[in-house]
Amino acid sequence: MKEERYYSVRMRAAKNGPHEHGGKHISGGELLSTYSDLKNSVNALLEKGLHHSRGTPDFMQIQFESIHEPIKRIQPLHIDTNEADTVEKGRKLSRLLLEKVGIERQVIEKAFTEWTKYSGMRGAILIDVHSGKRIDDRQEKGVRVSRIDWMKTNFELWADYFHVPKSTRIREALVIATKVCAHPATIAELCWSDDPEYTTGYVASKKLGYQRITNLKEYGDERGCRIFFVDCRKDLNAYIHYLEKQPVFIHWEVENETTINRKK
């Protein structure tokens, strides 16, 4: 990276008061920014929070803090898109993909049951891949992946190369999935958005890459899902610290690309 100070810029927006006072989560966002670009970064997150299909917020918090830790650069996961014409077929495929990385069926079913208890949360549920039990202590808040970004110009080069839409939504989701799956404790991630107008979700892992599934929830459903299947034999505190505090830039380099003839 350039010898320049970077800042973590974060936004959260809610309706009917702050999240901690029972407000409905509307939107959230994460950026890494130089000092000279802070104003643009804050404005980008402000626009994101003000214009969301979940509603108009009456509470928003935007904050930034200086980053002192070295920033890691990670190559993005490869991407495939799987078409599912019903939610039932999409959920079935998500289960099959999770089984493909070695997660037992009963653990997957326990995770889906656990999700229904906390489907309004902002962060992720951590599920022990061996028992199916939730192992974080964050309750409704969950664990939020932070200090992440992918420069737009580099993302667009990647999108052109793989003939992927230059969608901000894809970029943001792939940034999270790539950081999460880069840690050795992560077995897989299952996710779909809380945006009522967006029904596509994904299963991601180092082994499978980023597997988009076009129907993982019904249109109009505001319940989102983010589950990390974790090997709890690793240091859980160190894992959560990595998710929340380790700064990561996703950066694609064509000369390192070994994926050939994958579905776009």
UniProtKB/TrEMBL annotation:
Q: Annotated pathway, please?
A: Metabolic intermediate metabolism; pimeloyl-CoA biosynthesis; pimeloyl-CoA from pimelate: step 1/1
Name the reaction it catalyses: heptanedioate + ATP + CoA = 6-carboxyhexanoyl-CoA + AMP + diphosphate
Q: Which cofactor does it need?
A: Mg(2+)
UniProt keyword ATP-binding present:
yes
EC id: 6.2.1.14
Keyword terms of this UniProt record: ATP-binding, Biotin biosynthesis, Ligase, Magnesium, Nucleotide-binding
**A single GO molecular function term of this UniProt record:** magnesium ion binding
Looking at the keywords, is Transcription present?
no
Q: Which InterPro entries match?
A: BioW
Q: Which GO terms describe its biological process?
A: biotin biosynthetic process
Q: Which domain of life is it from?
A: Bacteria
How is this protein organized at the quaternary level?
Answer: Homodimer.
What is this protein's function? Catalyzes the transformation of pimelate into pimeloyl-CoA with concomitant hydrolysis of ATP to AMP.
Per the similarity annotation, which family is this? Answer: Belongs to the BioW family.
Which protein is depicted?
A: 6-carboxyhexanoate--CoA ligase
The organism is Aeribacillus pallidus
State the gene name recorded for this protein: bioW
